[in-house]
Amino acid sequence: MPIQWRKYLWDEPRLATPQEFEQLEHQWGVTLPEDYKRVAAAHQGMTPEPGVFDVGRGTNVISVLLTVSGDAGQDDYSAKGAFEVLKPHVPEGIYPFAETPGGEFVCFDYRESQRRPRIVLVTVEMDIHPIANSFSDFLTALQQPPLPSP
Description:
Blueprint: E1 4-7, H1 18-28, H2 34-43, E2 46-49, E3 52-54, E4 59-61, E5 64-65, H3 79-86, E6 94-99, E7 105-109, E8 118-122, E9 128-132, H4 135-141
Antiparallel strand pairs: 1-2, 3-4, 5-6, 6-7, 7-8, 8-9
């Protein structure tokens, strides 16, 4: 099922520029996956539908794709701001790109590979759970929420 991106932070999409990605990569010292940059450039601050993902211990949902662009009114939803929250609590090499409704973060995990980061969930307890082997695998695995039992 193709992903539909719905408004979350703004009424209209706000495109992220290549310069904004370069700045984030420089700040974090990583090369972000190209597939992520393509998606985030067009859909930062939006929510995917479907947006449910399997964590192995159950399912969770993405509420918003964190922003790459600076926006003084939406600092709570920026990748840079989320990283500053996580940085003292997680190992080096973990960088957030999405948030869940419960305040958990979906992150790139560069600890094993600088070229192809895995995708992990960082819980509010700062536990780290694997989700997918790549950003593309993560998007492909997004699903609709289960229907309630009759």
